[in-house]
Structures are given as C-alpha cells and as structure tokens.
Here is the input.
Amino acid sequence: MAQESKRRRFARPRVVVSRCIEFDPVRYNGDMVPSREVARLKPFIDFLPVCPEVEIGLGIPRETIRIVRMDGGNHLIQPSTGRDVTEEMQSFTKKFIDAIPPVDGFILKNRSPTSGISGVRIYPSARPSAPVGHGPGFFGGEVLMRYPYYPIEDEGRLKNHRILDHFLTRIYTLADFRIVEEQNSFPALVRFHSQNKLLLMAHNLKGYQNLGRLVGSHANHEPADDLIARYREILLPTIAKAPTYSRTINVMLHSEGRFKHLLNHEEKAVFLDAVENYRAGNGTVAGPKNILKSWIARFGDEYLHEQTFFAPYPDELMEYPAEETERGRDLWADFLD
Ligand code: SF4
Here is the structure.
C-alpha cells in the first residue's frame, strides 16, 4: 500500500531482514536482537524475515556455528558436534534468493557467521583458536554477490544517522522504481527520471548524465522492458554512495536559481547563510532545504515540488538527536522549582 505525504506518494519498500532482529527470538540462545531502527521501520516497510540457521533445521536453542578455513575454502562448522552444514546453508540460501519476490534492500545481523555482511571471524579450526581473517557470513556473502550495489546493511551500521538516511533514500527510490517495472512503460520511466533528477545529481553527476542519455535515446524505439532493465543497471551504482556535502550544496544552489527573480536581497542572504552553515558544519542540510521548500510552496514551482530530493522518504522516518526531540520532560525541574 502506498504511503502519503504532503508532497509525495511513497511506494512501500520490501526488505529482507534477519528474523532475530526485532521479529522472533530465534538466536542460538533463544534471544531476540533489539534494534530501535528496525522497530521504527516496521509500520512503513514490508519486511521478509528469515533465519537461515533455523531454516536448515539447527533448532532453537542450538550450539553455535563458526566459519572455519580448511582445504583451501571456508566451511560452516558446529564445533561442539563437528557437523559441517556448509552445503545445507548454500543450498537453502540459493533456494531462498531464487524464490523471493523483487526486493529493495536487506538488513542483516552483524557479525553472524551466517547472516553477517562483513567483519565475520574466520577461524583456522573448530577448536578454540584466534581468527585468521574476516569476511561476510555464508548467507550475507551470497546476498552481496547476487545483489550488487543494493542497499544491504546490518543493524549495527544503521545506528549511524548518515548510513540510515542513505539506506532509506535508496530503498524508497528502488521501491518507486519497482512501480516503473510493473507498469513497464516508457512514460513511467520518464516520470521516474524527471522526479529523481536532483536526487540523482546529488548522488553522482556522471550517473545522472548517463541515465538522462539513456532516457533520451528512446528515439531508437528500444522496447520499454529492455530500456528499464538498462536504466536499473545504471541506477543502482549511481545511488550506491551517499551524496557529498559539495554536490548537495550544488543541487540546492541550482534550485535557488529558479527563484532568483522572485526573491529580495535579504531572502537570498538568509538562504546563503544557511548553506554556509551547512558547509561549515554549523547546521544540518535541513536548514537550507526547508527554506527552499517554503519557496517551492510559496511560488508553486511544480518541477521542484515533484523532486524526490526534497522528500526522499516519509518525514516520520527522519532522525533527529534525542535531546532535540524530547517532549514532555522538564530538564530544568531540579533547578527552577
Ligand atoms: S543472525 Fe541470522 S542465522 Fe543467526 S539467528 Fe539471526 S537470522 Fe538466524
């Protein structure tokens, strides 16, 4: 179901999540992993929870498993029983990925020998020993291989506001793009490209230009599904890295240029001060962005009004430091009563 905002209708992202994070107590010890970020996302996202270790029949609770490097390759071993579950895990992972519908991202449990996407310890033997290296887990590693440039994060990294912001921007962009794929029409692709111009520009200018050229090349009358598939191939790496400060500033200055004949000197100066504060690290991007949003509303600029750059995901998911958003608690009670 689509989610409404004052400015944008959001498609609902579909995300695979490790089942032990906020869904079910399926960890080896019967615990569940708390994650404030995943808990907040639950009402907004269609999650597909999965626990590969339970799926291959290891049970709850269960003895732990670890990655062991032997015979020139990595194996998934249960040290207490000596059981090698490598093949079961590989076979389950392949079947699972082949069976799931198109998804927009993954949130996987960090440091798990199964679900981890990086930094998982690799041991030289099943006996107590120091790790000889680090890498992704068996399930997480296969996901990384099968979904290049996709938003794939672990719940630990999502605690960082910039990483969370980038992850949300990407999954909402890809959810929107899935609608283009479902509609399988050139006008739907043109609409998507047009509404995402500023967002793409902020992420990666070269990628934005390549995507623009691709849409413009429709003069060749390539079938819509081929064109849309090629667009996705460029879109994914284009938004894979977060925008830099300087590109974000360029996009905001470019947007302000549309109002240059409508603003007085003072108004422009207030905006440029807000941009400068953001550039100097004395303010967030919300300062200059909100000024632009007020001008978009005031002057009714339809082009900017439709740009996802100004609303990359629902406002309710915007993160602010707790001390900024605390409500109802009197922090001065001990001193002033
Ligand atoms: S990390 Fe993965 S395999 Fe381990 S309990 Fe969580 S979902 Fe299951």
User: Anything to note?
Assistant: The pocket of iron/sulfur cluster is lined by residues 18-20, 26-27, 51-53, 109, 112, 114-115 (CB under 6 Å). The chain has two domains: 3-59+89-121+136-159, 162-320. Residues 162-320 form one domain.
